């Protein structure tokens, strides 16, 4: 059996426009890594459910109980299952178009060590809710992870995306 791919772009779910949608893998089941489930009638509705569920990085939709999204912490192994549709939401972390001398003030959701600003892009893309960051030289280099870009100011020694 051949699996097909269906792509859908959804409207942004927040003011910063950081949610892009999903590309469904038709007939594919992401096995394991379940962290929760929600009742949904359509597979593309799982995109939004996963986006808002902490730690969700992928999902599999099945017709179980008239539609269930199996939320997952990671994609995991795949198997062919004609009754399943799976995807990883486009969470669109920063594009890593780094802006030197720019600081996004407030909206901190955490921090992580990083020796250079470019490392923050990877950290942000794997952190739930991260939509932007500011990097400083503090403590040998720190990514200040943000849930949105607000309060933009000019600040020497800070790099943001």
**Uncertain stretches:** 1-19
CATH superfamily of the largest domain: Hepatocyte Growth Factor
The description of the largest β-sheet is: 6 strands, antiparallel
Fill in the CATH topology of the largest domain: Hepatocyte Growth Factor
* Helical coverage, percent range: under 10%
> In the CATH classification, which architecture of the largest domain applies?
3-Layer(bba) Sandwich
Radius of gyration: 18 Å
Distance between the termini: 42 Å
CATH class annotation of the largest domain: Alpha Beta
Mean pLDDT: 80
Structural class, from secondary structure content? mainly beta
The total beta strand count reads 11
Largest beta sheet: strand ordering: 1-2-6-4-5-3
Write a brief structural summary.
The protein is built from 2 helices and 11 strands. With 161 residues, the protein is mainly beta.
Walk me through the structure.
Keywords: Disulfide bond, Repeat. It holds the Pfam family PAN_4. Residues 22-96 form the Apple domain. The protein is 9% helix and 45% strand. The longest helix has 8 residues, at 45-52. Residues 1-19 have low confidence and may be disordered. The protein has two domains: 4-87, Hepatocyte Growth Factor (3-Layer(bba) Sandwich), CATH 3.50.4.10; 99-160, Hepatocyte Growth Factor, CATH 3.50.4.10. A hairpin with a 5-residue loop joins strand 9 (132-136) and strand 10 (142-146). It is built from two helices and eleven strands. The protein has helices spanning 45-52, 119-125; strands at 4-9, 21-30, 34-39, 58-62, 68-72, 78-87, 99-104, 108-113, 132-136, 142-146, 152-160. With 161 residues, it is mainly β. The N and C termini lie far apart (42 Å). The strands form two sheets. A six-stranded antiparallel β-sheet has the order 1-2-6-4-5-3, with helices on one face. A five-stranded antiparallel β-sheet has the order 7-11-9-10-8, with helices on one face.
């Amino acid at each position: 059996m051949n699996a097909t791919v269906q792509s859908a772009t959804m409207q942004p779910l927040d003011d910063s426009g950081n949610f892009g949608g999903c590309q469904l893998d038709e007939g594919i089941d992401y096995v394991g890594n379940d962290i929760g489930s929600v009742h949904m009638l359509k597979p593309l509705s799982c995109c939004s459910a996963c986006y808002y569920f902490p730690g969700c990085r992928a999902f599999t939709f099945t017709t179980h109980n008239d539609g269930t999204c199996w939320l997952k912490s990671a994609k995991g192994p795949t198997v062919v299952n004609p009754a399943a549709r799976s995807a990883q939401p486009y969470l669109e972390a920063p594009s890593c178009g780094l802006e030197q001398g720019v600081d996004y003030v407030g909206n901190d959701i955490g921090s992580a060590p990083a020796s250079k600003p470019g490392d923050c892009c990877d950290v942000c893309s794997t952190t739930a809710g991260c939509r932007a960051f500011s990097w400083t030289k503090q403590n040998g280099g720190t990514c200040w992870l943000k849930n949105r870009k607000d309060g933009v100011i000019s600040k020497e020694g800070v790099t943001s995306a």
